[in-house]
Amino acid sequence: MTTAPTARKGAVGTARIRVEGRDKVTGAARYAAEVPFAGLAHGWLVSSTVARGRIRSLETDAVLALPGVLTVLHHGNAPRVDTGYIGLLGVPPDPTCAVFQHDRVPSMGWPVALVVAETPEQAREAAEALVVHYEEEPYDIAFSGERPDAYPLDGHMPAVVEKGDLEAGLAASAVVVDAEYTTPEEHHNPMEPHAATARWDGGRLEVVDSNQGTTWVASELASLFSLDPASVRVRSEHVGGGFGSKGLRAHQVAAVMAATALRRPVRVVLTRRQMFSLAGYRSPTAQRVRLGADADGRLRALEHRSLSLTSTVYEFIEPSAATARVMYDADAHHTANRVVRLDVPTPSWMRAPGEAPGSFALEAALDELAEKCGIDPIELRVRNEPERGPVSGLPFSGRHLLACFREGARRFGWADRDPRPGVRRDGRWLLGTGTAAASFPVMARPSTAAVTAEADGTFTVRISAADIGTGARTALTQVAADALETGPDRVRVRIGDSDFGPAMIAGGSMGTRSWAWAITAAAAALRERLAPGTDVPPQGITVRSDTTAAVDALPPKERHSFGAQFAEVAVDAGTGEVRVRRMLGVFAAGRIVNPLTARNQFVGGMTWGISMALHEEAVRDRASGGHYGADLAGYHVATHADVPHIEADWIDDPAPDPDDPVGINGIGEIGVVGAAAAVANAVWHATGVRHRSLPIRPDRVIRAGTSTGERHA
Ligand code: MOS
């Protein structure tokens, strides 16, 4: 027997702790608000206390006389900025970020002034003392599925896609599900609040920030302030969570204005409460799903209509109806994303924007269809597995949904499930299990990277990537090591600095994929330069890459990750308590770079799903237009006691697409997709009652009771 030569064992695919892990646990890693600056001044934002109206006047004189106060910026004295541009991500800036440009107040919590003082305490005291007089106007914050002023909005995909005759398809169907689902306003709540420090340094604007993309924020600031892009530098070394909320926000712009006015560094940090108004959020949704199927469960007609809200100053759409365009085919297939403008802050991207609420409605409706047809929910999905993109007609680069269900069903013990609802008990608890499908698009955006061969035999990678807690820095170290055919200990990856050149943001689950592509390209070019015997000079040899042409050359296909979610719940119909007992997610997401950090991402997303199903809900007070309990006491997120045994794993999906040179899909968002539906479907299986409004709160469970009429005594 001959032995093949031992191949170098690659770093990709091996579990590695975070390269910056020691720095983080010892406190050596500095977050944006912790970076020291000489002569630092502190800004505190003042938020409107009315939901709509005009600022009549601000009593700034009294505040300027307070100890330590340096200035008060507001619409009467702040510099004008330019909002007439389209940003790097292809959208205009949200005017909420272009602070202090006019006297109008379009929502509660709108930034009306910045008080700058020597210390944060002085700034806060003065900000709270600032009296602002408003001319109040009536406001409208009433979101519901019945809004006559709703209209279709495209966003980054068409709002309305219609194929075939929907009403005819429904009429010809043996079984019809017609149901409305709602999800509430939800907030990102990253652990680290938004924070930025701005200063002018030798003619350059430097901003130390916590964000999901330094070149993105730098280019937005350059556009707003009409600066040469080369004269703006944004750094963001460590980020304590983002989830879509950390792009350009009011605090960076306010900090730049103040640093410019005072000619000294100014830091602005958002409070947790301010984040509820100034950091974006997930819009509530009202969704209607109509499914028509033959008796064997094959879909003839599918309709998914979703309504979300946006502010009066900016159009943002939560495209919840779009997942159906990928998941299930039907001769008649209608999907529509609509929006209504209300007197509220602008919503924004939040982990799986569209897919998270959309998959709740669609996957719960599929479960209702399975019940009506008397078919196992997994078998229903098997019967509706499309050959090609249901709407696009494009081939899938790989579609491993059923493989995820097969593996998940085996591990979860699905075969033993009694399909009847409301028949299992464990003392006071009714038990149930549920499942749902997940998918998330696999996309990439052009990025640049530089790789340097150092004279000491090590390598330095520079890319303006962002590690928002995901482990991206570690994953990129592994990718670079393999591309350079060296060990990860010989590679240092530097990220979070816009001076490293344009690169994709940490968003859309396409960060690691896009950055890995650029790093691999630069590493390959560098290895060609380093022919054996090449002398590396003291400054090293640097090669740069730009993947614009390669990314643009990807042939159009349906590219998605897939997953199967399973949940077991226990419901006490008397107290209304719902406890998730266990959860399993099995995913197909291309090459998994680092099993340790990847599992964190999947489990984190699934935990969000539990939280979405059972806990999270921001409620607006109709009497003020603002939130009740805009803090982590009033806004409930799943905490340790709510999160049981969660298992996340993946099936082998090593080469998702022959013409895809990276093979890495995104994993940051798919974990939340379908997770809330799996929990809700399990609650139905436990109680026999469908809960179509999230969160499934104890009061809702008590009011709904069970199919056997069990209620609190
Ligand atoms: Mo994410 S919502 O793509 O940051």
Automatic annotation (TrEMBL):
**Pfam families, per database record:** Ald_Xan_dh_C, MoCoBD_1, MoCoBD_2
Any one Gene Ontology MF annotation carried by this entry is: oxidoreductase activity
Keywords of the record, alphabetical order, are: Molybdenum, Oxidoreductase
Tell me which residues make up the Aldehyde oxidase/xanthine dehydrogenase a/b hammerhead domain.
Answer: 26-138
Q: Where does the source fall among the domains of life?
A: Bacteria
Protein's UniProt name: Xanthine dehydrogenase family protein molybdopterin-binding subunit
